[in-house]
Amino acid sequence: MMTSFKTRITFLLFLFSLFVTLPAVQAHADALADKINALAEGGFNDREKAINALAETGDTRVVPALEALGDARLYQLKLGGKVVIVEEAGSEFKLIDPLTLEAGETVAKGAVDKIKVNNRLRRAVRDALGGLQLRSNKPADRMAAAEDVFKSKDPGAIPLLDKAIEKETDAAVRKAMLEARATVVLSSDLDEDAKLAAIKILTERSGRDARSILLAFANTAEGKLKTAATDAAALIERSLAAWATAQNVWYGLSLGSVLLLAAIGLAITFGVMGVINMAHGEMVMLGAYTTFVIQNLFRTLAPEFFDYSLLVALPAAFLVAGLVGVGIERGIIRFLHNRPLETLLATWGLSLILQQAVRSIFGPTNQEVGNPAFMSGAFEIGQLTITYNRLWILVFALVVFATLLIAMKFTRFGLNVRAVTQNRRMAASMGIRTPWVDALTFGLGSGIAGIAGVALSQIDNVSPNLGQSYIIDSFMVVVFGGVGNLWGTLLGAVTLGIANKFLEPFAGAVLAKILVLVFIILFIQKRPRGLFAQKGRAVES
Fold first, then answer.
1. pLDDT grade, residue 45 (50/70/90)?
2. How far apart are CA 363 and CA 365, in angstroms?
3. Under a CB-based contact definition with an 8 Å cutoff, are residues 55 and 128 in contact?
4. pTM over 0.85
């Protein structure tokens, strides 16, 4: 009984609140409508006062009317005098309520009068819109308004910014407003202390835009202000150089992770079998096309689960490339042991066959492979931009490397592989079936190349020539790091990746690769077995 009584009381209070607040809301809307209608009254001076009155309301519902006024789309009905926004509908105008944005009737163009504006009124509209956006309820709008002021450097925005900064609660938005105010202060006639404080704020912001503003100010300033602005610009320049170095290191690590994925399978097969597999790049290509097929199936059968397509593509690419690798070893490679030149020619011919087969099935053009949501976009650390797809590829490459390292160290298969690598005859005499070790190792290396293709499909074009772009770099990584040594492959991939990215800005992409190749040639003259040479009596002999 008591609960029912409380419910009734609550309901009555709710009705009473509606009875009290609805008229107030309606009165406020009517007041805004009157202020908008005032835009059509009097001359330019009166309209400027009406614009300022709308800005002082702080109500963002007046933004469409002000924008329409600035765009010359605000008219007054001849009958009734109401101000409306118009859109052309053939030879007529469609009327839109400037407050509610509800579409109204369509009238002849002669039924309305255009509200005229000049450049002074357009500036007033721009300032009013900036002030309204600075007081918006949405942080994103306030942030965008602050950035607009930062770019415009309009001294008239200082009072608006001061009011907005005083009320701002979001730390990021407040920081952007302070930076915007600093740019405006440097363009104003405020005193020296205010401008020195502005220089300090822009120095903390850093970035190329802040540096440009400070240099421009230094060109016109004198004395203490000129010195402060010049020193601040130089400090930002040093900061930008440091961040550029960090960016190149990141790009180098990113390229190194790609080279690691492409080369790690080649390092295993080359180390165990001594085979120069020129079709290794096509295993990468098969992995990329497997990803394309899997994603098409997801798009057709279960588009809502598209983000999980890579989780299916990874094992599928490993199996497809791995089985093709086992087939290549059993069908071709095993008949060409100890004949490296013939093996090289045979695998090169096979690579051409695989490329043409893919062209015949999928066509010669690039295929579209999408990024899942978790691999899309980027984030920033200072001036360093990191894309999610390359970050995930780096993490994935390290996971593959760690998994393979554990498998080689702590499994029976890994023990057999290391035994065959170090001394094939002794391993065979101990009962290890070296032909099957060769086949499984070749399949494993090809399977890893397949999952490298899954990763590469997220950052490169999927085409029949995909593998050819990485095969030479992969061989350089293997030779530089040491044949068959996983740690050498990791260090070689990272070293060559970073070296390429530091050379490219000065020498260009092609010349950078040539310089890296020359370095490796000179390096192997001193260390023919690479950074980490394999050990064992057979290897050393």
1. confident
2. 6
3. yes
4. no
